[in-house]
Amino acid sequence: xxxxxxxxxxxxxxxxxxxxxxxxxxxxxxxxxxxxxxxxxxxxxxxxxxxxxxxxxxxxxxxxxxxxxxxxxxxxxxxxxxxxxxxxxxxxxxxxxxxxxxxxxxxxxxxxxxxxxxxxxxxxxxxxxxxxxxxxxxxxxxxx
Length: 144
Fold this sequence. Notes:
Layout: H1 4-16, E1 26-28, E2 39-53, E3 57-71, H2 77-93, E4 103-111, E5 123-137
Parallel strand pairs: 1-2
Antiparallel strand pairs: 2-3, 3-5, 4-5
């Protein structure tokens, strides 16, 4: 099996692929890699140990970030971002565990303010952040 963080990243990516706003313009990447907007980049954030359950299990928090890229007139940016953010929220909360037995909980962490540094090119990016509570063995970061 793959690392629990990779499995979670893959499941989140699958859940947000095919949204009505962004379609298949979804990549797992830390750098801008999109030819067409709107688009999403899904990436891992920090993983923190939350608690240890004896010598058997570790509860950890895994952050996942989804960068939302949009293009359009400056006055349309917020509306487009919020529509996509709403679709992401619905997709991820439809089954917060994403079919993964090691996911215990999921909390939306919010949406960053859009970065309109590229506003001259009529595009912007904002980040939708999510915190997943996961459980894995003390001896392996792969799910059973």
